Structures are given as C-alpha cells and as structure tokens.
Amino acid sequence: MTATTANTTNAASSATEYNPEHTPRLDLAKLAPEVYKAMIRLDAAARQGVDPTLLELVKIRASQINHCAFCLDMHTKDALAAGESVERIIQLGAWEESQHFYTAKEIAAIELTDAITVLTDGFVPDEVYAKAAKQFDETELAHLIGAITAINAWNRFGVSTRLVPGHYTAGQVRH
C-alpha cells in the first residue's frame, strides 16, 4: 500500500494525512547483479534444514534490531501467510519478557539472533551459543548461523539503499 493508497483508504474513516514515501537510493540487484545473485545463493544455502517458521521469526527479529522496515514488511507478511500468529510476531520485540509465547528452541534461536546481530556488544556469549547448541544439532546450528548472517546482510542492503516497505506481497521473494 502506498502512502497515497493509505490516504485514500483511510479518508473515509478519518482525515489523517500520511507522510509521503521516500524513494530508494539505488537498485542493488540491477547495479550489482553478481552481488545480489551471490546473496540469493547464500540465503538459499543457509535456510536448508532450518524450520521455515523459526526462520521467519529470526528474520523478523534481526530486522527489528537493524531497523530494516522493508525486511520487517516482507518477513512479517511471509510469516503471517505461513500461519504464524500476530501475537507471536508482536511479542518478538519484547521476547525476553514474553518467553512463554515461544518454545525453548525458538528462544535459543532468537537469543542467538540478538547476539550475532548486535556485535558491538562483543562476541557471541558462550552461554548463548551453548543454549543454541543444546537445542540444535551441529548441522542445524551451522545453517541457523548462516541464516542469521544472511538476514543481517539483507538488512544492511535494505537500510543503505533505502528500500521502500509496504509494497511486498507474501511469497513474492524467498530470502
């Protein structure tokens, strides 16, 4: 939905005037196609063996931390289309206080996502890694780390090129 569409849609119910959309800075896929294709391959390889629902939670969580509105739009819509609940998606922003919405395996993955995403706090703590290693076999854990790394790279592409959220349709892109 564009800002114009949002304004038209909401015009009947209120006189709210939304800010205009920003424009993207550049089209990475067009200008650096080999980089984009390499990212697609990394993303596809990393998600092998990772539960698709868990993968969307991880992608949403990393995108929240990195403030990537485009990726939040994409992965929230994909998660909802795959049957994820609105409540669990909303609670991701406060997962430490709402752990009862998630399994122990999901919490381990979310906590690992936070640690890998926010490297400015230092290394991934041993206890975070150990918790994840207890929930995932080594192959699953290696793929999960790859998937977390891939979404962080996608987030950086999204925020630096200013991808515009709101136009994605669930299932449109798989990464």
Q: Span between N and C termini?
A: 21 Å
The average pLDDT score comes to 90
Gross morphology:
globular
Largest sheet: none
Tell me the Rg in angstroms.
17 Å
Unreliable residue stretches: 1-12
Strand content: under 5%
* Separate helix tally: 9
Helices and strands, in order, run as HHHHHHHHH
Number of strands: 0
Q: Which secondary-structure class do the elements indicate?
A: mainly alpha
Helical fraction: 55-70%
Sum up the structure in keywords:
62% helix; 9 helices; globular; disordered N terminus; 175 residues; mainly alpha
Describe the structure.
The model is unreliable at 1-12 (pLDDT under 50). Helix 3 (33-46) runs antiparallel to helix 9 (138-161) and helix 7 (104-117) crosses helix 9. The protein is mostly helical and 175 residues long. The protein is globular and about 50 Å long. The protein starts with a helix and ends in a 14-residue tail after the last helix. It has helices at residues 3-11, 28-31, 33-46, 52-66, 69-81, 86-91, 104-117, 126-135, 138-161.
List the helices and strands and how they pair.
Elements: H1 3-11, H2 28-31, H3 33-46, H4 52-66, H5 69-81, H6 86-91, H7 104-117, H8 126-135, H9 138-161
